[in-house]
User: What shape does this take?
Amino acid sequence: MSLRQRQLLTPEEYLANERRSKTRNEYYRGEVFAFAGASRRHNRIVTNLVTALDTQLRAGPCNVYSSDMRVKISAAGIYAYPDVVVTCGTELFEDEIKDTLLNPLVLVEVLSESTEAYDRGTKLEHYRSIESVRNYLLVTQDRKRVELYTFQGGADWLYKDIQPPNTDVEIASIKCSIVLADIYYNVDT
Assistant: This one.
């Protein structure tokens, strides 16, 4: 009996396939992982975050993207789709198609039961390896809670757990403040 070995894709093969695909897939060192659809709650939180951030940033040099902007984590060999991405200044892309960002400033993940452990652990570690990242937010779906990681320099990150409903989420790197209740507007928690 022979064991069939899974074929690993090169980054170029992954990008070619992904650009033709109707679904989103993340890439990790040759392996491809399909994304499941998001819940209403998840989508509302992402919409609220994008709206709040874009409203504050649109007059300046920053851009806000929802979950379809792919980010390359070069050090880890990963292509990922954060729920929200913010850039400021010159954006760097993998190639001329400009669908794979190399220098995000702020990354946001809305936690799901199936991804929470990964988002808090391995993904956090990988996102922190991107030189340009200054903030990483984890947003809980089933209660009002945002966890904010802020780069302090070197290997140091400051952690802040934001829970009271009328507390502001201050994202210093982009000079934005979002009321916690606005993140959860029209979301059953």
Observations:
- The first strand starts at residue 25 and ends at 28.
